[in-house]
Amino acid sequence: MDNLKNALNSMDISYNNDALEKFNLYMEGVLQWNDKINLTAIVDKDQFIKKHFIDSVVICQYEEFKNAKHVIDVGTGAGFPGIPLAIIANDKEFVLMDSLNKRLKVINTLTESIGIRNASTLHGRAEEVGKNKEYREKFDICVSRAVANLSTLVEYCLPLVKIGGYFICYKGPDLEKELVVAETAINKLGGKVEKVEIVNIPNFELDHRLLFIKKINTTPAKYPRKAGTPAKDPII
Asked: For the chain, first and last CA: distance in Å?
């Protein structure tokens, strides 16, 4: 856990020994379950800490995240970035959403055994959850590290964000190219690009970008479109 401690210190992110223990137990749990269910291709512990934990918590530095209370993680997979964020920010409530229920069952098992009380799971497709009044425009922050083009991701995520909130997207160095294509989708869905932050942590080679899209208008009722359409036919 020394690498994680060094990274958190360099970003001035507060933590305690209980948090470090939760990180370790969650990693061990995911790697044990990985023999039964395909949760992650990253099985080296140093790489796991770097690519799943450190990469996830980088948004904890920013005021937009610090000011949030309710956060949803779309396409959480094995719980990233949602679980690391929940461990660090135990004053916030997290909903971890995924379309594959067997992954969520693992997350539920691990969070219960470890004592992570501020994270719950939600089984469903983003296109359906985004239409549900219980979740539509209810969250201060939506985060996603899901592998999808930006035009598709904003249709999954912006409908869930309340006006004044943010969709914070974890992307790679090609973000600028994706932004050009996604501009129409962002505008149509009620968003506005506020900033792009380059992730730069001393001694850690993480060539990533954080895209902050602010929700400035209500998302039109027709979005998100029916299941499968955002991926097959992105808004352009």
From this structure: 43
pLDDT of residue 205 exceeding 80: no
* The pLDDT value given to residue 166: 98
* 45/154 Cα distance (integer angstroms): 32
What is the gyration radius of the CA atoms in the chain, in angstroms? 17
Among residues 173, 171, 136, the alpha carbon closest in space to that of 157 is found at 136
CB burial class (10 A; 0-12, 13-18, 19+) of residue 42? middle
Q: DSSP class of residue 99?
A: S
The residues, any chain, with a CB within 8 Å of residue 30's CB and separated by 6 or more, are 39, 40, 48, 78, 79, 106, 110
Do residues 170 and 55 touch, judged by C-beta distance below 8 A? Answer: yes
The helix or strand, by DSSP H or E, that contains position 196, with its residue range, turns out to be strand 191-198
Instruction: Please state the pTM of the whole predicted model.
Output: 0.96
Tokens linked to 147: 């592998």
Strand, coil or helix: 209: strand
Torsional sign, CA 55, 61, 67, 69:
positive
Whether the CB-CB separation of 127 and 221 falls below 8 Å is answered with no
* Rounded-to-integer distance, Cα 227 and Cα 12, Å: 41
